[in-house]
Amino acid sequence: MGQIRALAVAGSGGYVKPVMSERARIFSGMQPTGGLHVGNYSGALKGWVNLLDQGTYEALFCVVDAHAVTIEYDVKQMPSRILETAIAYIAAGLDPERCTIFIQSDVPEHMELAWYLGSVTPMGDLGRMTQFKEKSEQHQQNVNAGIFTYPILMAADVLLYKATVVPVGDDQVQHLELAREICRKFNARYGAVFPEPKPLLSSTPRILGIDGKSKMSKSRGNAIELDDEPRVVEKKLKSAFTDPLKVRLGDPGRPEICNIFTMHTAFTAPPALAEIDATCRSGALGCGECKMRLRDAIVRELTPFRQKSAELRKDPRRVLNVLQDGAERAHGIARSTLREVHHAMGLTSRSLG
Ligand code: ADP
User: Fold this and answer.
1) Exposure winner among 39, 61, 182, 299, fewest CB in 10 A?
2) Å from CA of 30 to ligand 1 middle
3) How far is the CA of 38 from the centre of ligand 1 (A)?
4) pLDDT for res 5
5) Would the CB of 169 count as within 6 Å of ligand 1?
6) Do 254 and 243 meet the contact criterion of CB atoms below 8 Å apart?
7) What's the CATH number of domain 230-312, 3.40.640.10, 1.10.240.10, 3.30.1360.70, 3.40.50.150?
């Protein structure tokens, strides 16, 4: 923090002028899975909005579409998935006037840097990644090199902007540890080009799905989606898993192992949360009532989000302008980092002159 770094902004005639920013930089992103879910929201997006509102950081938020191609997908649907993710960012409160919102594939330097970083990344480290093991298990018919090298692209996403803080859910911490390792290896071999990034976790870094078995994820079909109507939220919560030892009203519960309570932590204000904790433990609060309080809290918080999303969907041009503007700004920073990287590695015609 306090370090002077180049912040590129769009200037006249499409040129990008570097100006100086004293704030440390944060970077984060989500895959364009279509609609986001409560896990994405409380594990990441809500925290991004809070960080932006604090004003401490210069912030870049990316729709990481290039990460999404490692799994087979319907090409026709991809543009609307990207647009929906950008809409969710803005509707949740990421103000494009105060941060940079852009699409990863609009800045091809992500892919170029990933290639260079790949040459300092040990294969063994990639093979140890939990997400690689899970994805190759889930998609046995398509275990491609992209699934394997995914964490290198993620390291490039962060290092390209010299971001020092990366707000993510806990499933991404292992990838971030590898990004730090890649950063150290690159700097040791080519000189100190990149600062080491650190993960920053929200207070609810891991939300389980309504099945209570694995993390909430769209692909596992266990998610409460941000766009779900209140009656759908209610239906999903009614079937959700709670403390198995709390069977009927009067049984004492254990909020620390209950995913419904974890979700309350993200959506319910502290005094009401303390009351839920105490009455669940005493047995006075039953799971049915607790779930309906959660439904109310989720609906209360997400109603403005759903309204804002609907407004933005009617005006996609506005979202497109945000993304094009964001790409231009991100591209300026990316080009300047790549120039440093080329110089450090002795590449391109510029090193000949
Ligand atoms: P998904 O995991 O659904 O494919 P991404 O990998 O694009 O989505 O994740 C986007 C962000 O949301 C990441 O920071 C990730 O850690 C966070 N996240 C995703 N699922 C959860 C969850 N169930 N609980 C908490 N955070 C989550």
Assistant:
1) 299
2) 7
3) 9
4) 35
5) yes
6) yes
7) 1.10.240.10
Beta bridge partners of 8: 18
Please tell me the least confidently modeled range out of 6-20, 45-59, 91-105: 6-20
The predicted-structure confidence for 65-84, as pLDDT tens digits, reads as follows: 999 999 999 999 999 999 99
Domain boundaries, the chain: 4-206+316-352, 230-312
User: How many other β-carbons are positioned within 10 Å of the β-carbon of residue 230?
Assistant: 15
C-alpha pair distances (Å), 165 with each of 42, 196, 309:
18, 9, 28
Is 168 touching ligand 1 by the criterion CB < 6 Å? yes
- Name the band, by pLDDT with cuts 50, 70 and 90, for residue 17: very low
Contact (CB, 8 A) for 10 and 329: yes
What whole-number distance in Å separates Cα of residue 301 and Cα of residue 336? 40
Question: Are the beta carbons of 30 and 40 closer than 8 angstroms?
Answer: yes
Whether 76 is a known active-site residue: answer: no
Average pLDDT, the chain: 92
Tell me the CA–centroid distance for residue 117 and ligand 1, in Å: 24
- In this chain, the answer to whether the domains covering 4-206+316-352 and 230-312 adopt an identical fold is no
Give the CATH class of 4-206+316-352. Answer: alpha beta
Most distant CA atoms of the chain, gap in Å:
79
Active site residue 314: no
Q: Token pair for residue 226?
A: 């941000």
- Find residue 101's DSSP bridge partners: 61
